[in-house]
Amino acid sequence: MQNISSPPDPDTVAPTGRGHVVPHGRVLVVDDDPTVAEVAAGYLERAGYDVEQAEDGPAALERFAALRPDLVVLDLMLPGMDGFEVCRRMRAQGPVPVIMLTARGDEDDRILGLETGADDYVTKPFSPRELVLRVEAVLRRGRRAGSAAPARLGGAGIGLEPLARRATRDGRDLCLTLREFDLLAFFLSHPGQAFTREELMREVWGWDFGDLSTVTVHVRRLRGKVETEPARPGLIQTVWGVGYRMDLPDHDASGY
């Protein structure tokens, strides 16, 4: 399996023709290393995506505003403006799934990326095929959640409108990332039921692989937005030795 650190094989990663519209969706690849960008773009194009590239933060923000891609593959170590800041500014313009690329193996950097709003991260060197699988998983989960979603979910003062992607707490809008929204919707759909982190990763992220700290970080961030006292959560409970459970009054998830 080819790693991204190796020179690209032109017979393997030749693009299918950039610029045409394809049904899988549009992906923006942001990386200042042309080899990394070309290999990632080539594999994504062969998988059926329309791919655009940017080499730094300002260019990425400009392309993002113009294209409104379905997903962004974003390098953490960009010149001038790092991936954290680029992700924050993209989030300010509108919701979009983000997969971060990083050459760092430090856990603090991975967690910071997730807390910034990234839906996943991939550590270099990585397999381009794994990147494609992660892109597919993020987009597939988002589309499936939208098509199968009920009109509304709620309980304990929380209201969710899945089709509109709108969340409220006591009538006030909640600012949730895409994955935080999906996680809250899953909890509200299964009140009183405990789930392991592996189950949450499979059901909410659509992955059978990945770093389970992804789930931990998102639960912590979600508590900070929906709990009255995040340090003493009354809704999203830790079930020691198992995982997490959402407790609602009388297990009522049918209304606000």
From TrEMBL:
Residues 1-20 are annotated as: Disordered. It comes from the Bacteria. Residues 148-248 form the OmpR/PhoB-type domain. Residues 26-139 form the Response regulatory domain. The modification 4-aspartylphosphate is found at D75. Pfam families: Response_reg (PF00072), Trans_reg_C (PF00486). Keywords: DNA-binding, Phosphoprotein, Transcription, Transcription regulation. InterPro entries: CheY-like_superfamily, OmpR/PhoB-type_DNA-bd, Sig_transdc_resp-reg_C-effctor, Sig_transdc_resp-reg_receiver, WalR-like, WH-like_DNA-bd_sf. Residues 148-248 bind DNA. This is Response regulator transcription factor. It comes from Streptomyces mutomycini.
